């Protein structure tokens, strides 16, 4: 399942290339609770169709009513940019379905330049990390290579947003648990690779959309070249597969490294790493083991929910205390 940002930008590019007028909408600031985070985007075509989201749906409907010919509006004929704010009053918050106290500010870009949009989409499809900077006074857009993901920056006149390839997940072991985790990760727009050199496990793998690797797991980690948008989960229960892969992953920039197993197995693994691989208690702090949030899970499906929840918490910068 492709990255939402890439889908929005590709659709906007295709609409522009077909001669349509298009408005690109980005959440640039929020106050209080908000249904969508800063940086969320949608594209709106002048005759009504839209893709992406900036709220739970009501604000999208209002933008369609205000700016498209589907409801007799002609506002999209203008150029440049416009800032709009929703949820300032309690009445507006209720009308647009915003949480209590929620307010968000949107940057509207009318008919972005096709050439710049096409360049951006091509860079994203090539797996590049790109910083997109918008001058709100002139509407000019500048693209630059980015070295690492950065938080969205908006000072009222300039928007800077980092766009890039999908978050990636490498799963070690093609068992039942990996199938559930892979499905959940795909629905959360991760690019998923499952590594298992054991043919008897690979033959029953059936998750469409997940890549299947036959490499040894530590080689698969090296081939992946993990970055800050990557996570690695060892789910095979076999130290011969998991251990070397985890050691590679722990010394990478991956935002999450986890391993399945009981607390006793996790302690034994850490002791092996310290005694035989010169790891330390400090270097092993990044290892989430047992994998997942504690929810009393027992079945593969429940454990997958627990694991995916912890991965998303790490991705979103929410550190969950271990109990």
Structure in a nutshell:
With 323 residues, the chain is α/β, with parallel strands linked by helices. It is built from 10 helices and 15 strands.
Question: Can you offer a commentary on this structure?
Answer:
The chain has helices spanning 4-17, 58-67, 90-95, 114-125, 176-187, 199-202, 217-224, 239-250, 263-277, 300-315; strands spanning 22-31, 41-45, 50-52, 80-86, 103-110, 130-135, 141-145, 153-154, 158-163, 168-172, 191-195, 211-213, 230-234, 256-259, 287-288. The chain has 323 residues and is an alpha/beta fold. It folds into 2 domains: 4-118, no CATH class; 168-315, NAD(P)-binding Rossmann-like Domain (Rossmann fold, 3-Layer(aba) Sandwich), CATH 3.40.50. The strands form 3 sheets. The chain has a 6-stranded parallel β-sheet with strand order 12-11-10-13-14-15, with helices on both faces. A 5-stranded antiparallel β-sheet has the order 3-2-1-5-4. A hairpin with a 4-residue loop joins strand 2 (41-45) and strand 3. The longest helix is centred in the last third of the chain and has 16 residues, at 300-315. The two termini are 34 Å apart. The model has no long low-confidence stretch (mean pLDDT 88).
């Amino acid at each position: 399942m492709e990255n939402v940002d890439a889908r929005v930008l590709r659709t906007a590019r295709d609409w522009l290339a077909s001669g349509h007028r298009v408005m690109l909408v980005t959440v640039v600031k929020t106050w209080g609770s908000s249904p969508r985070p800063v940086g969320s985007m949608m594209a709106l075509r002048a005759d009504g169709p839209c893709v992406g989201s900036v709220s739970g749906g009501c604000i999208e409907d209002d933008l369609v009513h205000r700016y498209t010919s589907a409801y007799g509006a002609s506002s999209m004929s203008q150029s440049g940019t416009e800032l709009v704010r929703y949820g300032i009053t309690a009445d507006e918050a209720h009308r647009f379905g915003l949480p209590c106290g929620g307010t968000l500010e949107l940057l509207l870009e009318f008919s972005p330049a096709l050439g710049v949009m096409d360049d951006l989409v091509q860079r994203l499809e090539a797996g590049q990390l790109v910083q997109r900077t918008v001058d709100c006074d002139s509407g000019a857009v500048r693209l630059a290579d980015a070295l690492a993901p950065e938080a969205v920056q908006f000072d009222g006149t300039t928007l800077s947003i980092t766009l890039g390839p999908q978050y990636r997940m490498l799963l070690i072991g093609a068992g039942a648990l990996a199938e559930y985790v892979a499905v959940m990760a795909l629905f959360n727009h991760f690019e998923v690779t499952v590594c298992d050199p054991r043919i008897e496990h690979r033959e029953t793998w059936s998750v469409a959309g997940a890549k299947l690797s036959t490499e040894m797991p530590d080689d698969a980690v090296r081939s992946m070249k993990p970055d800050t948008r990557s996570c690695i989960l060892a789910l095979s229960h076999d130290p011969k597969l998991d251990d070397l892969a985890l050691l590679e992953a722990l010394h990478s920039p991956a935002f999450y490294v986890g391993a399945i197993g009981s607390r006793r197995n996790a302690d034994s693994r850490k002791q092996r790493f310290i005694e035989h691989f010169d790891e330390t208690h400090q270097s092993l702090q990044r290892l989430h083991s047992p994998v997942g949030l504690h929810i009393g899970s027992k079945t593969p499906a429940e454990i997958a929910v627990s694991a995916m929840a912890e991965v998303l918490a790490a991705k979103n910068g929410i550190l969950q205390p271990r109990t």
